[in-house]
Amino acid sequence: MFQDLLRRLTAPEPAQLPELDCRLALGALLVRIARTDGDYADVEIAQIDKALMARYDLSPFEAAALRKECEALEAEAPDTVRFTRAIKDTVSYDNRVSVIEALWSVVMADGVRDDEEDSMMRMTASLLGVSDQDSHRARLKVSAG
Prior knowledge:
Layout lengths: L2 H7 L9 H17 L6 H15 L3 H17 L3 H9 L4 H15 L7 H13 L4 H13 L1
């Protein structure tokens, strides 16, 4: 089901993603960060749904359905390095910063930040081409809100 999207994401020069594929790819990153610590908690799942609802103006049912697709895509997706590099080449910087905010909201949803999640966030921000300063600002924005 996702093979065409994965092939496009990992092509040598990926083209701009259609909106639906962009939703799936970015949602899969949210799932990947939530699964990083080995505990895919209900509170993280709820935060992913909330982020998808806000970002794409979805109903709770639509967000949950999209998340389920994102979970399946994340399970099939290549390593994070290739996956995020492909997204970096197809998504604008401002959208990537907003993805970092959403990622931080998932990391912080369970109230626990661990070394694995922090490491994954640093790597993901870097691979998405988002500066440490913008990632830090995104984390502070999520913490304050």
